[in-house]
Structures are given as C-alpha cells and as structure tokens.
Amino acid sequence: MRVGRQYVKHGKIELINVDYPTLILQPGEFVVLRSLEELNMPRNLVGHNGIMSPWAKRGLVSLFSPQIDPGFCGFLTVPVFNAGDAPISINYMDKIFTVEFVRTAKNASYGWSERHGRQDRLVVPVAPSSVRPNLVDISVLQDEFRRLHMRFEQLNERQSEIDTELRVIQVRIGERREAKSYSIIKWTLLVAIATMFLALIVGVAGSDWMRTKALEMWQAISHGG
After folding, report:
1. Which residues are bridge partners to 61 per DSSP?
2. Is 32 left (phi over 0), alpha (psi -120 to 50) or beta?
3. In a designed cystine with 43, which of 70, 97, 138, 196 is the match (CB 3.0 to 4.6 A)?
4. What's the pLDDT band for 35 if we cut at 50, 70, 90?
C-alpha cells in the first residue's frame, strides 16, 4: 500500500500530494502516515499492518503493527519514527505499507465500521503540546555507545594482561618455594653427614675431650644450619 495525501506531524495535519510531494523525516522525528488505498474488510478477515523492509533498513520504524479488525472500512493510519541517523525522504504514493490478511474461524458478531464508522478522514488524536520535548540526538547516543564499547574492549584487554601477570607471579612463587625446599633439604643432608662423621670420630677416639669438641661442633653446625 502507498503513502496517502495527508500526515500528522507536530500535532498538525500536513499535506503530501502532487503540489507537496516530499516529506522529510529527521532523525528522532515522529509522524502519523495514512495509506492512499482503502480497505473494505469482510467480517471473517483480520489484517496486520507493517513497514516494508527497504524502509526499515533505512531506520523507519512502525511503533506498533495496528490490527485491522473484521468489518473495517477506510484508509490505514500508521505511526512511524525515524530511528536512523540520517533524514528519510518519503514521497507521495511511495509503496511503504504491507498488510497480512488472516481468515477467522467464524464471522465477527459485528464489524468495526458498524461501531466507529468509515475511516475517511485523518484526525489529530491529542491536542499538541505548546512545548516540544527536547529529544536527544540519536547520533550522539550512537557515538556514546561506540565510546563505551571501545572502553569495554580496552578493559577486556587490560584484564587479559592482568591475568597473564598473575600467572607469571604464581610461577615465580612456585619456583622460589621449590628453591627454598631444596636449600632446606641440602642443609639437612649436610647436618646428617656431619653428625655421622662426628659420631664416627667420637666412637674411634673415645676421649672426653674429643666428645666435648664433637658436641661443640655439632651445636655450631646445627645453629648455623
């Protein structure tokens, strides 16, 4: 379905036709479009409206997919929003809307138009505000997101560096522990050898003086180790 001759922007009904063929939708702007074609829905058919994918790829977003009730008659009204970072040009009679039709299990008890009448005119749903809200520029948000993403990547790299440094420290601590254990074992062996040697001397010499000297040497070696 194609763009019709009217739209609502900033609380006002504007024209888009042969004389004013183009609507420029800036990033962050919202409008309500209407379809050029009209529908005449039977009571056993329901529809769902959407945006064609080429428009969606440019950043045009339908804020919701309106359900087209059984018995609806008239043109469609679709609220859209420019979520991209560049202006979007919409021309009169551009193909933009899609409609999915689904048959119901049985007819509706009454049609939409029986309660609401035929939708043949565009209306402003709410009174426009005298002060337009200050919308944040989407490009600024995108730049901030990219900055945060880069910062996150830097933190990940730093975390990897810290993990590597911790592994190196753990290896060095292990090496020092092994070296210390080796030193203790070495001194223990030396003391044991010295003790055996002194015991042998004492046993052979058998004098009190030698025993005394051997004991003094043993104590010196023990305290020194």
Report:
1. 81
2. beta
3. 70
4. very high
Strands 30-40 and 67-68, by their bridges, are unpaired
Give the whole-angstrom CA distance, residue 204 versus residue 210.
10
Residue 156 has pLDDT above 80, yes or no: yes
Query: How many Cα neighbours within 13 Å face the side chain of 134?
Result: 0
Q: Is the dihedral of CA 210, 213, 219, 220 positive or negative?
A: negative
* Per-residue 3-state assignment (H helix, E strand, C coil) for the chain: CEEEEEEEECCEEEECCCCCCEEEECCCCEEEEEEEEEEECCCCEEEEEEECHHHHHCCEEECCCCEECCCCEEEEEEEEEECCCCCEEEECCCECEEEEEEECCCCCCCCHHHHHCCECCCCCCCCCCCCCCCCCCHHHHHHHHHHHHHHHHHHHHHHHHHHHHHHHHHHHHHHHHHHHHHHHHHHHHHHHHHHHHHHHHHHHHCCHHHHHHHHHHHHHHHHHC
Query: pLDDT digit string (tens) for 114-139?
Result: 998 998 888 776 544 444 445 556 66
Interatomic CA distance for residues 97 and 2, integer angstroms: 6
Q: What would the 3-class secondary structure string for 160-201 be?
A: HHHHHHHHHHHHHHHHHHHHHHHHHHHHHHHHHHHHHHHHHH
Is the pTM value of this prediction over 0.90?
Answer: no
At what angle are helices 138-205 and 208-224 packed, to 10 degrees? Answer: 180
